[in-house]
Amino acid sequence: MGQANANFLIQEEKVFSGALSCRGCGWSLLTRHLASLLGENTVYVVPACCFSIIAGPYPLNDLKANVVHTLFAAAPATATGIRAALDRQGKTDTNVVILAGDGGTFDIGFQALSGAASRGENLLYICNNNGAYMNTGIQSSTATPFGAATTTNPGTDFRKTWPKDLMGIIAAHNIPYTATVSLAYLNDFRDKIKKAMDIKGFRLLMIDGPCPPGHKTEPSESIEETRLAVESNLFPLFEVEKGKHKINHFPKNKVKVEECLKLQGRFKHLFKKENKAIVDKIQNMTDFNWKRLKLLEKMNVDLGY
């Protein structure tokens, strides 16, 4: 099972049964482990995304905590106001956490995200990156992987540009902590949540979110898909703390990117004979990004903030 020890055993459930998620959706597992660590003294701010549906319509609530639903573009701004109000009341120990998808992070909510990060707001931002606007019909976002098919990039018109380097952009805001996490590596995931909880200021965790309907996979394959993404370096696990990069997982038996892509129906067109060069291109870019990440780790200096 991988990383099978007591480090990620949930002692007390902080979510109710009956979540409205699809089978194999990463959101439910994500929030289950996140909520078990954050506890009930938490306010979750949720913009339009899959989780705004999964959490349930008013007065239902999947989480044993407070949930505030807000506009697609406004989650960091709404969370800023909540944080200020809680601090004014002396409730500085209450967690304020944003749960957003890649559409509300990379695209529609990016301006508010950048503003909150630049101001150093004391917020924890969780981005479930499943690589498209899955809740509204699997439209392409700027997080959509090169080569993936979506309803706005169908068939031979598959995505032909690279996704936005959100981690690089967020790190450039000089925030105290940001990291990538995977549901296939729960020890690392939970350790990073704990670390983020102990840090003041703006923190962001980006999760590789499996989505069976959007990725065209079987629900039982969700964790294997995310594991292969890490082992192929398509989604490396690393953190940036006070400007210092640290790689958290080095694949021991590195696999080719095609092993991860083959599992997902959104890439099936790439395995036609005429598209072999596209798969090679993705492999080359993945290798380049991994080398760049290792170089950033090697160049670490104390930036003093």
3D architecture notes:
α3 (about 75-90) runs parallel beside α5. The protein has eleven helices and eight strands. With about 300 residues, the chain is an alpha/beta fold. Mean pLDDT is about 95; it is low at about 1-5. It has an eight-stranded mixed beta sheet with strand order 2-1-3-4-6-5-7-8, with helices on both faces.
> What is the approximate shape?
globular
Whole-number total of structural domains: 1
Strand content: 5-15%
Number of helices: 11
CATH superfamily: Thiamin diphosphate (ThDP)-binding fold, Pyr/PP domains
Primary descriptors:
Rossmann fold; alpha/beta; disordered N terminus; 305 residues; single chain; globular; eight-stranded mixed sheet; 13% strand; 8 strands
How are the SSEs placed, and which strands pair?
Blueprint: H1 26-38, E1 42-46, H2 50-54, E2 66-69, H3 75-88, E3 95-101, H4 103-107, H5 110-119, E4 124-129, H6 166-171, E5 177-181, H7 186-197, E6 203-208, H8 212-215, H9 222-231, E7 238-241, E8 244-247, H10 257-262, H11 276-298
Parallel strand pairs: 1-2, 1-3, 3-4, 4-6, 5-6
Antiparallel strand pairs: 5-7, 7-8
Helix pairs in contact: 1-7, 3-5
